[in-house]
């Protein structure tokens, strides 16, 4: 098996494993107690905090360990918003943040707060200008990820942090995807991260709040971790998290170069060997190990199954995967194709041959899925009205509407239009994306009796 | 070293250790993913949930794993209160709940909710009658621990659950101290527990919410664990928690008998060999492994240090320990002496000889602390007003005010009074408790220029 989903969770680093085992016997007691076992647990916890703070680039007393990265984000956002409640009730996030940030923003809106979602350009990055435009006198907090979890694009965090500092607004950085590679640059105020992204164990998040940042913890009081992370400290896991962060950092420079070459090769080869594919994300300003692409006329879930059978574990932000039918909010915000989406995120230490084998297998897997989808049933061209053709794809799920569109576009004259009737939410994203890839004109969306009509004009 | 603080955290059970190691390699991936590693993680998680649900006595889909027992309590209380918001804004807790429950109650009060704190009798238990009296038509939730964490007294949970069911009020049971010994009886609605109390790893709590209980999770949305425990699941720890729960349950019946004998012996011997001691908690309706006593004229923290030097790790609910100067709310609610308090909580598997050695060491340790405290400095008997004596213990911390009282009580005639001036919060509890132990009359507390004057009448 080749596990290519490190952006979701990395396998346990050998150093983490060692540290966890060693501290199971030393770190189980209550570090608040004064007896020997408690003092020993406290020493382990303090040492882990020192190590983590050094890697983050903050003071040990600015850093607490939470039970997950999600919890660090939830607490960080809620605490900073509550701490600056008197300044105002405005929150800024980018449109491509992790769901833990976006769900925090929704919770804040439900309580009456105002949220600005800064859009991204097609690479997935915000521009410093548009982020700056969102800053207001009543802005309590701004949030920006260090790098995107779905496409790997790095955000201009240092420049945005500088802008925020000038405006007197604290910036919370979700550094989940990047902290293993290096510290976050710029004058950030709050930072959140997750150990299992860098090969640490599950159950450990990091929350750093710079001194001087107003911060008010909400919910029931709890004395542990400076009152910022309720519940008994999971010291063996914390020790393992800190040890593995130090270990991956020591390997980061060399491994980044190697993974960057591998992902550059994937970017290049996928575009060359898979027809009708869009490789997304910034080709240069990106994380070393992540590459994402979308395949026209492909059901993402079917492709994942196909790749799984071939021994490759990847994930997808496609609209057709998993329990949810909503296309990835990241791909949507970028305005790129979401259908047949695949995210490859290489774990540190991955073998180059495994990547080669993936590239060898991928074109056949994509072709196989396309073949199965190639003969959609009972899609009737409802008739030609002059030079306009109507395709009824109601009740058909992605990628069928786009496949049907592609089949009939040649039947209308250049300048003529195709109206695709669809009630699949993904069509709203995928039909414009197809037009851009195929250099046809996307005219727009019109209401229809059921679903919507997506109108496309043939240009060539 | 003899570790006698299992009620705080138990050392890792060998079965937990084995299960943790085994699942580090199998359970690190995201269980929401469809590829092999994800499916494997999901299977481990599902199996752990089945095992834990069986031990709790609920359906697997009623149980989620949280990141700690504290988190389970916080989420359980907030969720049940929010789910029954329309019924009313009244919460019932016992006065001797764990701080996670009491802090949740305070947070609820801060939001405008009303809280009734049901008092306990001198053994530390609520009576079913007084609990029933607290039920109101607008009661949204009632909380009762299965057994007390400081003194081991079992609460009449089954009877209270029955009352609550009749009243249509859900009962949340904090079963942290008892779940390793057996399931909670009676028709409870919500149950919270913590794995590291039964020898599981840190970082795992259990929250069970019966079907039909109205429950609304607060805070940002998160899909994991039925939306009730945000953040990536810590599957290796969860597997270890479930495996060790099953293991300790298999040993529970025999081990309970053995520990009960050991603690009965401590109860009896401590009362016999330590002068001026009060053994607290219910002598029969109690957890097998916990015994708590308080020693007059002893500084709890000094005694803990003395015992630690002799190789015994125990904890204290005394006012003189740790970072806080407030006496334990549990001892306070029971109306028993808090000074020189020691909680012995035996871990499963403890050796009988260690207990004997503890009993051999304890009298000398208590005597040593008393000797050191025996000559308090600069406490001036400010003068006799008729048959009234005033002791100025301002600025002196527990147990000095009580020691001074004991020294001078013989100097006033029977029927005369001693006024102890003290600004130590603990005096408010310890002086009445001393009077009860010494059969003197506690007249009451009067305001003074600094602190309070505690008036005691000599009866014998």
UniProtKB/TrEMBL annotation, chains A, B:
InterPro entries: Aminotrans_V_dom, Cysteine_dSase, PyrdxlP-dep_Trfase, PyrdxlP-dep_Trfase_major, PyrdxlP-dep_Trfase_small, TusA-like, TusA-like_sf. The keyword Lipid biosynthesis does not apply. Keywords: Iron, Iron-sulfur, Metal-binding, Pyridoxal phosphate, Transferase. Residues 391-415 form the UPF0033 domain. This is Cysteine desulfurase. It comes from the Bacteria. It catalyses: (sulfur carrier)-H + L-cysteine = (sulfur carrier)-SH + L-alanine. It is an enzyme of class 2 (transferase). Its cofactor is pyridoxal 5'-phosphate. PANTHER family: CYSTEINE DESULFURASE, CYSTEINE DESULFURYLASE FAMILY MEMBER. Its EC number is 2.8.1.7. It holds the Pfam family TusA. The keyword Secreted does not apply. GO terms for molecular function: cysteine desulfurase activity. Belongs to the class-V pyridoxal-phosphate-dependent aminotransferase family. NifS/IscS subfamily. It comes from Streptomyces rishiriensis.
